Amino acid sequence: MTALLETRGVWQRFGGLVANSDVSISVGRGEIVGLIGPNGAGKSTLFNLIAGVLPPTQGSILFDGEDVTHMPAAERCQRGVGRTFQVVKSFETMTVIDNVIVGALVRNTVMREARRKAHEVLEFTGLATRAHVLASDLVPAEKRRLEVARALATEPKLLLLDEVLTGLTPTEAQTGVALVRKVRDTGITVLMVEHVMEIVMPLVDRAIVLDLGKVLVEGKPADVVRDPKVISAYLGDRHAVGA
Amino acid sequence: MDKEFAARRRRDLIIAAVLAAIAAATPLFVKDVVVQNILILTLMYAGLSQSWNILSGYCGQISLGHALYFGLGAYTTELLFTKFGVLPWFGMLAGGVVSALIAMGLGYPFFRLRGHYYVIATIVIAEIGLLLFHNWEWAGAAMGITIPIRGDSWLKFQFLRTKLPYFYFALALCCLAWFVTWWLENSKWGFWWRAVKDNPDAAESLGVDVFNSKMGAAAVSAFLVAVGGSFYAQFVSYIDPESVMGFQFSLLMALPAVLGGIGTLWGPVLGAAILIPLTELTRFKFGGSGRGVDLIVYGTLIVLISLALPRGLLSLFSRPKKTGASR
Predict the structure, then answer these.
(1) Shortest Cα distance from A60 to chain B (angstroms)?
(2) Taking the CB of residue B85, how many other CB atoms lie within 10 A of it?
(3) Which of A12, B33, B302, B315 is the one with CA 20 to 30 A from B93?
(4) What DSSP designation does A48 have?
(5) Cβ–Cβ of B206/A109 closer than 8 Å?
(6) How far apart are CA A34 and CA A192, in angstroms?
(7) Most A CBs within 10 Å: which of B199, B206, B209, B262, as the mutation test of the A interface?
(8) DSSP string, A52-105
């Protein structure tokens, strides 16, 4: 079976800066894949290329067997790419349910159905009791959850999570992890950018490590964390010697 | 929860129907022509502001150039009438269509601009429109167009002996703009507009066609404002560039919505009900060409509102709700 998402030799340059160089990754159906790497590794850039915020300088991106390299974000959403933002972008003057309805309208043209779908998603993500609160009144952890709920309402095949677990308390992070598992169990493929290794590693099926814009290592989380190249990328060469 | 939401929608509709009925009955008690005049203008500006609110309030694209669409409505109607004998009713529709098309044509480059740059562009374009009409000989240039008086007639929509037909037309326009807003508020477009206003990037990621959302809002908004312009031209029966396309019209469409509550269903009506009588009364009391005290009065009002109640007077009544279509 073909991969759900594939990037082929993707390059992204911003002026003289090379953010991604020759990145080829693939994500299979039903997987949870973690995209990790130190600051400035090019994770967010790759993430934005996949979401369709901007087209790559070079290379191609395939989603569900289709070349989407130059497709705008809104159309990718219609094809089944859902995303969250690292810096949350709630619709602040709208209620939680209204935020989610915007997402649900992608696949439901009748308002009544979009509303029902939105309620369903809020139930699923544990935000049902907050449905009629303004998004601006949510606490940070709830806003993260709302980002996920909104994306889920678009009924994606691939869910892109941009640091949804970062900056949460351990308890909040654990409920977050449970939610990601629950999402995968409904058949949605997940690609997540994360910083917090100890939370991500037990969660993902496979980890892809980026460093200096390139794919450094990719494999089972347990192998990845022991890889000397990864350790030196994160901590410097001195620490990698002992590994 | 959905029941609650449906109940609120129904309640809004009932309140609107009751208010419209009360308004429709006022001419029975108000015989004074000056007061009637004020009522007509209030209803007209309520409708205009409601239409402005669709693009600028709901979709968040603040326009200070809507005078252009108002003037285009007026000019299209009167040029068709005086040059080709087309009845104002058809002229009204034509004016609406012309304005909607021009709004979309202008939106094509300008909706790529963000924030203040868009606002500036709208002001500049309206001023250019004003200058063009000032110099356009065929359209009467600075002399304007006098609408030939042929006696009271519904067909030609002109009345000398009574203001009542104008009153009812202004009321109908106001109701139409309100109803369109009410209807769109709970539609895909309404949700898309509010999403675009709050966060275009997030909207895009959720499948919202940001550019076409703005185009749609601009077209609806310009169409309704142009119908208002056509009405105004018939009402005053003489137009020149300054009297239908001047900057003050752009302000008078924006201010009621800002005063009452921008991006809300009831804000423009509430704002117009306070602002327009106040403007007209001060103008009446202090005389002059109307470019003095009235401006000071509502300038002060706006400053006070933006300091004390930035979300408008409506936030006094329904604090937790704001623009939310739910609940």
Answers:
(1) 20
(2) 8
(3) B33
(4) H
(5) no
(6) 5
(7) B206
(8) TSS--SEEEEEETTEE-TT--HHHHHHHTEEE--SS----TTSBHHHHHHHHHT
What are the boundaries of each domain within chain A? 1-80+157-243, 86-155
CB contact under 8 A, A132 and B327: yes
CB B5, CB B326: distance < 8 Å = yes
Nearest CA-CA partner of A49 in A219, A224, A213: A213
| H or E, element range at B156 | none
Residues of A whose CB is below 8 A from B325: 98
- B18: tokens are 């009751």
Residues from chain B that touch A106, judged by Cβ atoms under 8 A, are: 206-207
Q: First-to-last CA distance in chain A?
A: 37
Residue B150 contacts residue B158 (beta carbons within 8 Å): yes
The structural architecture, per CATH, of the domain A1-80+157-243 is 3-Layer(aba) Sandwich (3.40)
Are residues A74 and A59 in contact, defined by beta-carbon separation less than 8 angstroms? no
**CB neighbour burial string for B276-312, b if at least 16 within 10 angstroms, e if fewer:** bebbbebbeeeeeeeeeebeebbeebbeebeeeeebb
Tell me the C-alpha distance between A106 and B266, whole Å: 29
The token pair at A112 is 């009544």
- CA-to-CA distance for A50 and A198, rounded, in angstroms? 25
Say if CB A119 and CB A111 are below 8 A apart.
no
Residue A142 predicted with pLDDT over 80: yes
Phi, psi of B142 (to 5 degrees): -70, -20
Q: What is the dihedral of CA B227, B228, B231, B233, to 10 degrees?
A: -110
**Phi, psi angle pair for A230, to nearest 5°:** -70, -45
Q: Which band of pLDDT confidence, cut at 50, 70 and 90, is reported for residue A237?
A: confident
CA distance A139 to chain B (A): 17
Q: What is the pTM of this model?
A: 0.90
* Complex confidence, ipTM: 0.90
Cβ atoms A160, A50 nearer than 8 A:
yes
Q: What pLDDT, on a 0 to 100 scale, did the predictor assign at position A222?
A: 87
Measured at the CA of B68, the angle between CA B66 and CA B74, to 5 degrees, comes to 110
Q: Are B182 and B13 in contact (CB under 8 A)?
A: yes
Pairing of strands A66-67, A58-63: antiparallel
pLDDT, tens only, A54-94:
999 999 999 999 999 999 999 999 999 999 999 999 999 99
Please list, in sequence order, all residues whose beta carbon lies within 8 angstroms of the beta carbon of residue B110, skipping any fewer than 6 positions away.
B118, B121, B122, B125
How much helix, strand and coil, in percent to the nearest 5, is found in chain B? 75, 0, 25
